[in-house]
Design brief:
Helices cover 36% and strands 20% of the residues. It is an alpha+beta fold. The chain folds into 2 domains: 160 residues, Aminopeptidase, CATH 3.40.630.30; 156 residues, Aminopeptidase, CATH 3.40.630.30.
Length: 338
């Protein structure tokens, strides 16, 4: 039997992206917690319609053995990140691999060689494809399903990455709010008292003034996140692109803007856990040309009972005034009331 392992570069052509994305189905076969992403939506990330590619480049590879695709990886050079970080480093992302160190070693070697050709001297990841998207390697909590825009991977990935020589750059945490918690109720009562003294106005996103609301949020975003680890500032086009993607399943009453004297000083975004709704769809909205998945998605979205707070930011100078707490309170209160 020919056991030759081949590393094949792919472009961002739709047909090659489809092959690239299909690799994950073989990796997670039998994993009860994996949620197949909606392919129709994910494929858009790789197109030139994504304004990321105004300042970034991406190269894809798959690993193939005996006619079977057994791994994949992407290399990303984001010039905006390199400029803000003050060093040239490439991201790696969309990594999937069978439990075989030789396969992962060859994939990372391909990214490293490509990054060197891009004058980069280090690799950081996983980023799918930047810190403004899904990022990080799951190392604990494998017994829980991933929430919307959160990574999920087999436990053996940590060994594949560290075995190649990668080391931890940063710990990323996900915090769980359970409404059946006496301390949470005590906290909410405290926030209600703060709300009576605070002059801030917390209001929902106005979908009828989408563009102007996006502009307000974009200004707050740029002012609040600049000092965060691996922060990448979004261009106006990128911010609008992300907003339109989130608007597909966000609820305006869970996207809050904090204003003080008419000035936007903070905002938060909580979205229903889209993964709960798409879990049985296997990544597809159509079957035999019929929109069966789309109908099921619409029905299941109304049954989602978990939300994820994806963004919470306040401009420096307006923090520690109870404004962030009020946005969290409004989000929880809305969720409990549904």
């Amino acid at each position: 039997m020919n056991d030759e392992l081949r590393i094949i570069p792919l472009s961002r052509h739709p047909r090659e992206v489809s092959r690239f994305l299909k690799v994950s189905y073989g990796i997670y076969d039998g994993d009860p917690h994996w949620v197949a992403p909606l392919l129709l939506d994910l494929k858009k990330v790789f197109t030139d319609a994504n304004p990321l590619f105004d300042h970034a480049r991406m190269q894809l590879w798959i690993a193939s053995r005996n006619g079977r695709d057994v791994g994949r990886i992407a290399g990303i050079v984001d010039e905006a990140h390199c400029k803000l970080a003050g060093r040239r480093e490439a991201f790696f992302g969309f990594f999937e691999c069978v439990n075989d160190a030789e396969v992962s070693r060859r994939l990372f070697a391909a990214v490293q060689q490509w990054a060197a050709g891009e004058r980069c001297h280090g690799l950081l990841g996983p980023m799918n494809p930047t810190t403004n998207d899904e990022c990080g390697l799951l190392i604990e909590g494998f017994q829980y399903p991933p929430r919307v825009m959160m990574n999920h991977n087999p436990p053996y990935y940590e060994g594949l990455l560290t075995g190649w020589g990668l080391t931890k750059a940063k710990d990323l945490y996900a915090w769980w709010f359970d409404t059946d918690n006496e301390r949470l109720h005590t906290w909410m009562e405290r926030v209600r008292r703060v709300e009576q003294r605070c002059r801030a106005v917390i209001r929902p996103f106005d979908m009828n003034n989408f563009e102007s609301e996006i502009e307000r949020c974009a200004k707050v975003y740029a002012a609040t996140r600049y000092d965060q680890w691996a922060f990448i500032d979004l261009t106006p086009a990128e911010f609008r692109y992300f907003a339109k993607r989130l608007a597909q399943f966000a609820r305006p009453e869970m996207v809050l803007i904090a204003e003080l004297d008419g000035k936007a000083v903070g905002f938060s975004i909580a979205v229903p856990d889209f993964n709960e709704a798409i879990r049985p769809l296997n990544g597809r909205l159509t079957s035999w040309g019929m929109p069966i998945g789309a109908v099921r998605l619409f029905q299941r979205l109304r049954q989602v009972r978990i939300a994820r707070v994806m963004v919470l930011g306040l401009i420096p100078g307006y923090r520690h005034r109870g404004i962030a707490e009020q946005m969290i309170y409004r989000t929880i209160d809305h969720g409990v009331g549904r």
